[in-house]
Amino acid sequence: MSTVENSALPHQDPAQRLAAVWHRIDQAQAASDRPAGSVKLLAVSKTFPIEAVDAIAACGQKAFGENYAQEGVDKASTRSELEWHFIGPIQSNKTRGIAEHFSWAHTIDRLKIAERLSAQRPADLPPLQVCVQVNVSGENSKSGCEPDEALALCQAIVQLPKLQLRGLMAIPEATKDTTTQHRQFATLRDLQTHINQHGLSLDTLSMGMSDDLEAAISEGSTLVRVGSAIFGQRTYTNSDGASA
Ligand SMILES: *Cc1c(COP(=O)(O)O)cnc(C)c1O
User: Fold this and answer.
1) What is the pLDDT of residues 62-102, one digit of tens each?
2) Cβ(212)–Cβ(172) under 8 Å?
3) What string of DSSP letters covers 130-180?
4) What is the C-alpha to C-alpha distance for residues 62 and 82, in angstroms, rounded to an integer?
């Protein structure tokens, strides 16, 4: 993994960038008659150094998201007073670090991963809070279970002792077309309703990022995952050579 310097957005300090994101969240909540405080903000710090995390934490932000297991474990273990959320694809050989150092994992898309996380969660920690990731765009390349598999996966996860199932997560197809944005977010919300009608009580919809958080909040998001609008543009290549 090679990380090149990620620079902050010019002309704005961390407090201003964070305040601008909160302003967007508050406006979107108000526009859809949702009460203040109904959306949680996750600051996605992947690729940014720990000093950038510290600067945002100093503004009162407590919850941070990471995508890459080793980078995330390194940051979470040095700043254990913060709340760490794993939001990247989970390979089965990387579950232990996530189980030991994170409070949440948003990207469970198969039972095998859930079983490993439950088995590896240390006994002295509270259950790992988890979301099932669903592929709402229909793109073959996207991770996440299919919508019609989500209920069965959720029903299996609630049996696991060291996981607490909280909800659903999606990364929709990136598009500027707001109709498509809304349709994909609504798919996830309708799926949550469907699953809860089967006796579960999912309270979390993890959806919305820097470019589409307004659409996500209007469709019921309870947790937005915001990276570049808080930390600045990422210039980054991971070990696969894929840009993130
Ligand atoms: C990187 C990432 C984000 C943040 O994306 P921005 O567009 O920078 O806000 C949110 N969720 C996931 C799963 C990500 O990988």
Assistant:
1) 999 999 999 999 999 999 999 999 999 999 999 999 999 99
2) yes
3) EEEEB--S--TT--SB-GGGHHHHHHHHTT-TTEEEEEEE--PPP-S-HHH
4) 5
The domain 3-235 belongs to what CATH superfamily? Answer: Alanine racemase (3.20.20.10)
Question: For 223, what's the count of Cα atoms within 13 Å in the CB-facing half-sphere?
Answer: 25
The pLDDT > 90 percentage for the chain reads 85
Atom of ligand 1 nearest to the CA of 228: 8
> Is residue 238 over pLDDT 80?
no
Ligand 1 pocket (Cβ < 6 Å) reads 44, 46, 67, 87, 171, 209-211, 225-229
Mind listing the pLDDT tens digit for each residue in 3-61?
Answer: 445 555 555 788 999 999 999 999 999 999 999 999 999 999 999 999 999 999 999 99
| Residue 1, pLDDT score | 40
Tokens standing for residue 16: 């201003």
Counting ligand 1 atoms within 8 A of each CB, the residue from 24, 44, 188 with the most, and so the one to mutate, is 44
Enumerate the domain spans of the chain. Answer: 3-235
